[in-house]
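hey so i finally got around to running the thing on that chain from the lab meeting. sorry it took forever, my laptop kept dying and i had to restart like 3 times. anyway pasting the input first so we r on the same page abt which one it is
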Amino acid sequence: AALPERRRPGGGRPRYEVVRELGAEEVRWFYREDRKTWKPFIGYDSLRIELAYRALGPAGGPAEPREGEAAAVEPVCVRSGLYEVDVASAESYPVYWNQTEKIPVMRGQWFIDGTWQPLEEEESNLIEQEHLNRFKGQQLQESFDMEVSKPVDGKEAIHSLKLSRNHVDWHSVDEVYLYSDATTSKIARTVTQKLGFSKASSSGTRLHRGYVEEATLEDKPPQTSHIVFVVHGIGQKMDQGRIIKNTAMMRDTARKIEEKYFSNLATHVEFLPVEWRSKLTLDGDTVDSITPDKVRGLRDMLNSSAMDIMYYTSPLYRDELVKGLQQELNRLYTLFCSRNPEFEEKGGKVSIVSHSLGCVITYDIMTGWNPVRLYEQLLQKEEEELEDRWMSYEEQRLLEELYVTKQRLKEIEERLHELKASTVSKPPVLKFKVENFFCMGSPLAVFLALRGIRPGNSGSQDHILPRTICNRLLNIFHPTDPVAYRLEPLILKHYSNISPVQIHWYNTANPLPYEHMKPSFLNPTKEPTSVTDGESVSTVPSPTTSPVMVRRHYGESITNIGKASILGAASIGKGLGGMLFSRFGRSSTTTPQTLEPGKDGAEGDDKKATTVGTPPLSHSSSGFLEPIVELEHRIDFELREGLVESRYWSAVTSHTAYWSSLDIALFLLTFMYKHDQEDTGKSNLDAI
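ok and heres what got predicted. didnt touch it at all, straight out
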């Protein structure tokens, strides 16, 4: 049983050592989540926990913590500041969210060979005590630079210790084995010994004193330069801890991506769950009391999930939902800054990742949208309609009087508001500027469309979310997610016929940066029934005259695929392609270009006008041809479909499949590390 080489930071230790009490750097602390295996804390955390532990009892001694002194030792901040360890109770708990299950922590002194898992603390303490009593002051034959070559076979134990279900044999100072005293192992041991095998090799487990790697304060996590608030959607009432688990999945996948692609950067991105639903009372139990008993399970599931959408559209409860999320976001940010005072000083950034209905509530908080505004617009419209129709003199006089009174009321309200503003400065809705707002599986576009937002003529994100509020809006969705909708066609109508940007697979070699991708059409040609002189010569839609087009979708049904094939064949039969080329050929020498589905990734943030064939043309009212407006930055990003997954099954699962996706983790970090990467790798970008 050879000892693995021990890694000793700061040079090797003397070859021959004297047995002494374990140093704080040799002890390793562990934690266990979800009843899985024990995981070691990093050196920085373990060393600080051990020092706090020793502050409870006699210096250097593995004494039990004394009750009276428990309050004197402060909790130790661990795992990048997300958790704290209470050494006295040997428990760990999260700092930023509530968790019913405490996470046990354990002090490791003796470890199992190979796995380096710690022995249970009670047994470990007994073995350590016995080891010091018997061997303290004796020289060790163990070298940390070479493997122990002497076989233990045939050696008799020089010392033994009986435990409850096991016993430990010392064959030498540094050759210690643990044997199970269970009946089955006794039989096995007898059989193997009769066959000529030695006792040690037959059923013993080699133990090591002190962890394989010394704990150092240099082994610490990188500083957080960017925090991401992860906001849940509906259904949180049904499974209260779900957002915490989802955020943990996202954090773990992001860590893997950071190690693989961003290890050269000295900072890291931290993900914090925002659980806004459980604190809200809303209607109490009124909805439950009016729910019929038949198929109660299904009804309860709908009440706990879909009911949140109804609450949000209710004028009575909408404000409570908005306030709940707003307060939780501000609470988390304030708490994080109080524990990391250098975050704001060093220009730390904040992004938000929202899922489902959470996108709509987050959007409304950032923009300050309120249904009252919609009502005022409706009243204004009614007034304009009244002015247009015929009315009697008396009615006209009363309307004028009402108009003057309203104007006077408006002036008084404004003066009062100015007076209040001068005495009390109103705090901002959010205590931070949002750098990136990532929507995942978001119905936001539907809500905006139903609020009356229509496509404009400018390719700016400001049309739906001003850049002064949020620097960048990105809409991520799975092609078969039934809850997700596109945002780009709400800014420029013709983007309904331009496919969303394909998100790179995380293991793609040298992917093309998103900003360098060119738009590709979902349906590059349309089939007109007849072309008259008065109609536009352009078959490419424009912001002002976008026709309804046959669109290809990734989640389309078989009948739609068949119909698209027939239409495609018909358009080729009519020679429409040639007609299109001849028309475009008049105004440019560029070779016309249609959809290239084989290209890796489809499009990206391209501020310059990209050409599909020639620069896209539209027919203006004056009769001149004008170039089509393009988006400053692309907003819609689509996950690539799996090659074997069923579309109908993925329609059920895709809405919740974002959390553990490595593709999404890489996508998020690519945008959040953008500025850091530009500083460290401009030469790479130039090469691309």
